[in-house]
Amino acid sequence: MTLWKGRFGTGGGSEAIKFTSSFPFDRRFYREDIAASIAHAEMLGATGIISPGQSKAIVSGLSRLRLLIDEQGFPDDADDEDIFSFVERRLGEMIGDPARALHTARSRNDQVATDFRLYVKGLCRRMALAICGLNASIVSVAARHPDAITAGMTHLQVAQPVLFAHQLMAYHEMLGRDLDLLDAAFDRADVLPLGAGALAGVPYPVDPKRVARSLKFGKIAANSMDAVSDRDFVLDFLYAATSTALHLSRIAEDICVLNSQPFSAITISDSYATGSSIMPQKKNPDVAELARGKSGRIIGRFTGLLATMKGLPLTYNLDMQEDKEAVFDVEENILPAISALDGLFATLEIDEERMLQLASMGNSSATDLADYLVGKGVNFREAHAVVGRVVRECVDRGTDLSTLGLDDLEQHSEAFGPDVLERLEPAWSVRARTSPGGTAPDNVASAIAIGQAKTESARKTWEARSLPWDDHDSHPED
Ligand code: ARG
Q: What is the DSSP code (8-state) at residue 93?
């Protein structure tokens, strides 16, 4: 069914309808649409734009329709153009004539923007809660292994020893920024466009503030043309998801590296790994790899919608219908990726001994030796050159700084004394890095405590964010 037959002599071409129809995918936000229609009909009744009887009949019909769809889904043979046409047709079948008053003082342009804003707000919430779960699992690995020392890498070369918990808390920071982005995306979506009509506003005494209160929107749109043409909130969500996907891909890459045989620093649980069809010995980090790979698709969806939006004239254009599948596709891929990495961390095994071996490789105490010389009055540039020569000798002899004795060092500088030997220990190196945000154990212990508290408070904040229905934890498509 279409909502616009009057103007069309031939009733519209079936190919055109098939091509432009959004019902196959916009049915996904029927709950948002029905909630918005209920709020709209209540407002129409309260302001006298339609009669109280019409308003009541519409509201009770829509509530019944919502339950019916919850229970039975959509009929296979429904060939409506979009979710709006479906709802209006079914409402008409259920309550008769009053249904024909529902679309007074609104257009599908402000309706779709309203529905999708509600949907994106709910999705921000679901995604933020999933990230809080992942972050909680990451912090709990850190809390279980507060003393494990590993090789901090730059250029994928051993650089300086760090606490593994410090590395985990770096992931926590990255994902914390994604929570901030979702916060911003939620806030940008939190503006009610209903009342803008097609683009110019409506010639009825509507009360958008009342509708905003019912639908739990924080603000109402200031400009009707912007209200129907703005999709920044979608791009903001997609950017938040892209940033998250990018972070997941970097975390997943570290997991793949640390899990590889040459590193053997962590073991992924059998339940988060898969095997090979030909090589019986294989246990592959497929979950991490796919989480890494999903970033490509998500970046593509984000840049795809950016390109769609670029150069669109004000106000509404059907190009903008493309925002739905972009968001749904991102949702379907990012949520399982977050949850899979959450499970992977929750079941991850750490080999602390092996990590310490890695931390001692690659002359990783070189900076500490240079810093030691600085403490003895040598300027840093000179100290760097001296230790560089020591390292060169190690490389030539096929040994490592960690195996040197005082005699070896004394040949390079008189400033070396017996107290230098402890500087070759990764534990010393880590303990010394007390600068703010550094890897010293006390710093990391407090970062873990702060991280736990932050994640918990973010979870509470997101849980408290309300949407216009009670059971907003789940979504029918999940
Ligand atoms: N299906 C459209 C979308 O998703 C909304 C309704 C289109 N409005 C219109 N005037 N054709 O953006």
A: H
Kindly report the protein residue whose alpha carbon is nearest to atom 4 of ligand 1.
321
Per-residue pLDDT tens digits for 233-285: 999 999 999 999 999 999 999 999 999 999 999 999 999 989 989 889 988 99
Rounded Cα gap, residues 316 and 11, in angstroms: 23
Rounded to 10 degrees, what is the CA torsion of 76, 80, 86, 89? -110
Q: Which residues are catalytic?
A: 155, 276
Q: How far is the CA of 203 from the centre of ligand 1 (A)?
A: 21
Tokens of residue 328, six digits: 């749904």
Cβ proximity of 236 and 184 under 8 Å: yes
Residues touching ligand 1 (Cβ under 6 Å) are 22, 26, 82, 108-109, 112, 316, 318, 320-321, 324
Ligand 1 atom 5 nearest Cα: 112
CB contact at 8 A, 244 and 334: yes
Per-residue confidence (pLDDT) for residue 11, from 0 to 100:
60
Whether the Cβ atoms of residue 200 and residue 105 lie closer than 8 Å to each other: no
211 contacts 181 by C-beta, under 8 angstroms: no
Contact (CB, 8 A) for 146 and 168: no
The closest residue, in CA terms, to atom 12 on ligand 1 is: 321
CA of 286 to the centre of ligand 1 (A): 40
- Which residue of 321, 322, 324 sits with most ligand 1 atoms within 8 Å of its CB, as the best mutation to test the pocket? 321
pTM equals: 0.95
List, for residues 40-83, the tens digit of each pLDDT value: 999 999 999 999 999 999 999 999 999 999 999 999 999 999 99
Cα(321) to ligand 1 centroid in Å equals 6
Q: How far is the CA of 104 from the centre of ligand 1 (A)?
A: 17
Q: Find the largest Cα–Cα distance for the chain.
A: 99
Which numbered atom of ligand 1 lies nearest the CA of 20?
Answer: 1
Our measurement of the distance from residue 115's CA atom to the centroid of its chain's CA atoms, rounded to an integer in Å, reads 21
User: DSSP states of 222-252 as a string?
Assistant: S-HHHHHH--HHHHHHHHHHHHHHHHHHHHH
Q: Is 183 exposed, middle or buried (0-12, 13-18, 19+ CB in 10 A)?
A: middle
